[in-house]
Amino acid sequence: MYNDKVHRISDYKKYGHTYCDTGEILHQWSVGSIYGILQNTNYLGSLQPYKSEKRLHEEKDSIFYTKEDEEEAVHHTHQAIVSVKLFEKVQNRLKIKMSDKKTQYKSKYTENIYRNILYCGNCGKVMHSVYYQSRKKDERHYSYYCKRAYFIDHRKCEKNYIREEQVTSLVQKQLCNTFKEQQIEAKDFIKLNMDECDRRIAEYERKGGKIAKEFEYMKKQAAMMYGRYKEGEITKEEYLAFKQNKKEQDNYAKKSLEEMKQKIRRAKDKAEEENKFLCSLLKADICKTLNIQLVEAFMEKISIFSNGVVDIVYTFSKGEE
Ligand SMILES: [Zn+2]
Q1: Is residue 298 included in any domain, yes or no?
Q2: Which of 87, 98, 115, 279 shows the smallest number of beta carbons within 10 Å?
């Protein structure tokens, strides 16, 4: 269609005609659009959703099937340009293609750690990932390429391909060098991390302290109210109402205090866990510990250029947060 200069759907809507004229931009058709057309029942001459023979039989057997349904189903709204036979043949081909894709890889899921930050340096678009199966282990290995290298229109990009292992080995070397150059050490990150954790814990403790104070105040208040009740200053009903109110407040305070304690525990656990992987950064086996959290914590963007240049944008640098 590109060779025949047929506008894709969005360009057809923009220009209002099918064929590309001089001065207009011609784009290639996307895979998604072609799939959409192949599955669109409008070409069968009906605006009804397409149903296979089997599905129709099932529906006719249903107790909910009415005469109106039948009339509606056979109603043709416009001239068909594709026969039902051909349409079904295409659907079967698509189905087989889909099931092929699903059964090909049955392995355990291995994380695609660069999926959100790897870009093609030539055209700026996200690198597309594909994976292959390791023969030895039940693992997936990813490689990344620029989809636009296979475009046929003016957006065509240069061939740009890199394997996950190559990215990892570069990233590790670069990260370690950068840490050394900028004299950033794991202990700096750990200190930052602990400061943040302490700040949060102090906040929880402050809130907890406030609740405990209120609790103590209510306790004193209760002793005083009991005295007044005994002296006959307040009625039994008034005293009981106060007690009921106090009970509710106490329950609320106890719950809140328990929540604060839990939050503090969780903050400590989280900081400890984070420190562990910060420590693993400086170790030689950083390769084994690179995961998506770590990758995204330290790097904002990795651009791959087809001439071999790899550009890494870090999320940190010395002197800045
Ligand atoms: Zn590209």
Answers
A1: no
A2: 98
The predicted-structure confidence for 89-137, as pLDDT tens digits, reads as follows 999 999 888 777 655 555 555 678 898 999 999 999 999 999 887 776 6
- Closest Cα to residue 19, out of 40, 35, 3? 3
Q: Does any domain span residue 289?
A: no
Query: Ligand 1 centroid to 3 CA: how many Å?
Result: 22
Q: How far is the CA of 143 from the centre of ligand 1 (A)?
A: 15
Structure-block tokens of residue 230: 């005994």
Distance 140 CA to ligand 1 centre (A): 24
**pLDDT at position 320:** 44
Ligand 1 centroid vs 157 CA: distance in angstroms? 5
Is residue 303 helix, strand or coil?
Answer: strand
Is residue 202 domain-resident?
yes
Copy the structure tokens of residue 69.
Answer: 């349904």
How many structural domains compose the chain? 1
* Cross-strand partners of 304: 120, 310
How many whole angstroms from 120 Cα to the centroid of ligand 1? Answer: 5
What secondary structure letter does DSSP report for 126? B
Domain, as residue range, for 202: 186-281
> For the whole prediction, is pTM greater than 0.70?
no
Does some domain include residue 251? yes
Which residues, other chains included, contact 175 with Cβ-Cβ below 8 Å and sequence gap of 6+? Answer: 281, 286, 298
Lowest mean pLDDT among 74-88, 205-219, 275-289: 275-289
